[in-house]
Here is the input.
Amino acid sequence: HPHIARQGDALQVEGLPLAALAQEHGTPLFVYSKQWMLDALAAYQRGFEGRDAMVCYAIKANSSLGVLRVFAEAGCGFDIVSGGELARVLAAGADPAKVIFSGVGKTRAEMRQALAAGIGCFNVESEAELDVLNAVALEEGRTAAVSIRINPNVDPKTHPYISTGLKGNKFGVAHDRAVAIYLHAASLKGLKVVGIDCHIGSQITDASPYLEALERVLDLVEAIEKAGVPLHHLDFGGGLGIDYNGDTPPAADALWQQLLARLDARGFGRRRLIVEPGRSLVGNAGVCVTEVLYLKPGEEKNFCIVDAAMNDLPRPAMYQAFHQIVPVTRRAGEAATYDVVGPVCESGDWIGRDRALRVESGDLLAVLSAGAYCMAMASNYNTRGRAAEVLVSGTQATLIRRRESIDDQLASERFND
Ligand code: LLP
Here is the structure.
């Protein structure tokens, strides 16, 4: 990894040793490389060079303000899925015109909030939502720009919980109904049809499902335009995977070279393009530093109990996801095999299984590829405060989120007497 590497035995993020950051801020601690995020964004920008394209960072992957500011300053647009996410991107300095609003369950209040902010486009996911959005826009005296999310029915070959473009999923509208729905949308006075979109899943490590979805979406674009509804932009969603454990997804620029070749071949190469990457912009840019509390040898398994848990790093518990776990400072000597587990009272609270580690209690471990869907999915389960986050740029570290205190947690609660 270019920006997360060892200097001798010590693991660093850019120019700063993780041990020193953990010493200063405590653990568990998320540490992010700013340069890594900018490099990941640059891969998309290279892929789209000379094209009319907009990268909208899907902030659900990591919605911390300090991270959003990096992308806002780099000129990114944003893909949001709630009124809360809208408030975050605006607080981070986003240009509202570059904000698109996805999600199957937008409330009327969220629609009003987004119309008032002047967002670029709503990605509408059902016929019922079209009608509600139309009504809300008319009430507000505004016009909502809409794109309709099509379910292309392709298998992204990823974990079932994160595949979204198959017929059995709750997302998008059916391919067969698309033309009829577009004609209906075009007839509604509160709406302006501007595009079409799809998103087929997440942690996709192969170009083929993208190519398949592209052909199906372009078939629909042709049919919709023939029926008399012009589409200004094409949005291909997010989903590009990252390397967790020797995975080899295509690079963003290489993927887009292939997709653009097909777009060109079918005469859509000059159309405005939008993508909504989340994980691929931030996932490998972050690590979570955790301290070993206890080593617990067992009859069947040895446990390495650390101070990070499923409330900080929910992906293993939720998807049996694999994250590499490495020592912050390497020790000499022989490794033993451990299940790395957290303090939460659930057997599902594990971070890694059967890992060869040379550790002592008090050591620091780094959980890698923790920039996406970790802090953003953190909870207070077991009344654990959420971790702190540090953004590193060169030799400069910024505490972009202080550790959550018990007072923060208790502040919103009341007794019933
Ligand atoms: N656009 C839409 C409409 C989405 O639903 C998502 C992710 C994205 C873009 C961004 O996808 P990405 O580029 O990050 O793959 N928590 C799961 C991942 C859930 C993804 C949900 N949708 C995980 O930790 O693996």
